[in-house]
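Work Package 4 report. The design task specified in the project plan requires that, given a folded chain encoded as structure tokens, an amino acid be chosen for each position. We show below one input record used in the internal validation round.
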């Protein structure tokens, strides 16, 4: 992946989003004791995943008809994601959860700026592009990026513990007239810089998790936004619509919006007799 037009990325969690319809009437029809047993089995299972160092699981109640429940899995490989999928499907609860859609992606930190700098630096050092020495220096520079404290912490952060979540997939356009992938590198880097500037004006108000899905799923990226106030999504996404990277080059899939709740609150969601809450964060959410 050293084509001069290709920005590098740092990649980390393998992510599976699963959206389900919850068969509430069928669940309600069960005896109370059985409902409790089903909820408890699922709670213990998901909490074990969420407390592991090398995985995570998160729940959100979605608004509207598209789906009721979003289950987000983080794992360190597709193999482990597959295992998580199977394990959930073996829970008794799965009999009441009908899959509606899903999304497969890998968390990424885009490195437009850094890649440009690395290329320039290697050029300045007089290294011959793609010769062994150049490749080694390139790898070393990338490893440095991955180990930089700011990047390392963000790469392996767990699911942000903020109440509201908004998930949607997106593409950069590849039309005959408007084609992101045919823009010169410098133009794309500049547009991403402008994009980042708008994003950063919302710093602290929103936590974005960008995951790449080229080669894995129907769109090119999954966008997860997390905030303490849903209005922030509307303001941020609206503002970005006017920014060239989005205004001209972005295309969006379906939006899913809802409330994250703690796995310990699953029984409340299933019973439907109180609003399931997001309890105190397990660890400081990265902002
Ligand atoms: O990671 C960083 O903070 C560096 C700057 C940055 C990159 C590289 C950044 C910042 N984003 C990056 C990459 Mn983003 N982002 C989106 C959307 O709705 C829309 O119009 C687009 C959906 C939002 C709302 C958003 C928010 N971003 C990307 C990429 C990869 C593109 C590529 O590689 O070609 C996509 C698809 C994408 C989409 N972005 C930010 C935000 C916010 C809020 C920030 C600032 C984060 C912060 O500093 O807190």
């Amino acid at each position: 992946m050293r084509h001069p037009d290709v920005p590098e990325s740092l990649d980390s969690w393998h992510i599976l989003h699963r959206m389900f319809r919850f068969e509430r009437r069928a669940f309600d029809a069960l005896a109370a004791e059985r409902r409790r047993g089903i909820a408890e089995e699922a709670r213990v299972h998901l909490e074990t995943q969420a407390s592991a160092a090398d995985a995570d699981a998160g729940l959100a109640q979605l608004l509207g008809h598209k789906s009721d429940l979003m289950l987000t899995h983080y794992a360190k490989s597709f193999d482990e994601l597959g295992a998580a999928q199977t394990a959930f499907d073996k829970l008794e609860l799965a009999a009441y959860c009908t899959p509606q859609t899903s999304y497969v992606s890998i968390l990424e930190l885009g490195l437009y700026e850094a890649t440009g700098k690395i290329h320039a630096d290697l050029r300045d050092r007089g290294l011959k592009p793609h010769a062994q020495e150049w490749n080694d220096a390139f790898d070393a520079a990338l490893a440095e990026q991955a180990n930089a404290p700011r990047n390392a912490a963000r790469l392996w952060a767990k699911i942000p513990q903020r109440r509201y979540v908004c998930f949607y997939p997106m593409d950069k356009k590849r039309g005959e007239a408007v084609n992101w992938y045919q823009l010169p590198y410098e133009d794309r880097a500049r547009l991403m810089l402008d994009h980042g500037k708008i994003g950063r004006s919302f710093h602290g108000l929103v936590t974005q998790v960008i995951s790449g899905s080229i080669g894995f799923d129907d769109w090119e990226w999954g966008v997860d936004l997390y905030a303490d106030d849903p209005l922030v999504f509307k303001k941020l996404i609206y503002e970005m619509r006017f920014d060239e990277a989005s205004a001209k080059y972005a295309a969006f899939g379906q939006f899913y919006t809802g409330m994250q709740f703690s796995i310990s609150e699953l029984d409340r969601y299933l019973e439907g007799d109180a609003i399931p809450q997001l309890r105190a964060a397990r660890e400081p959410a990265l902002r």
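The radius of gyration is 21 Å. Validation will be extended to a larger panel in the next phase.
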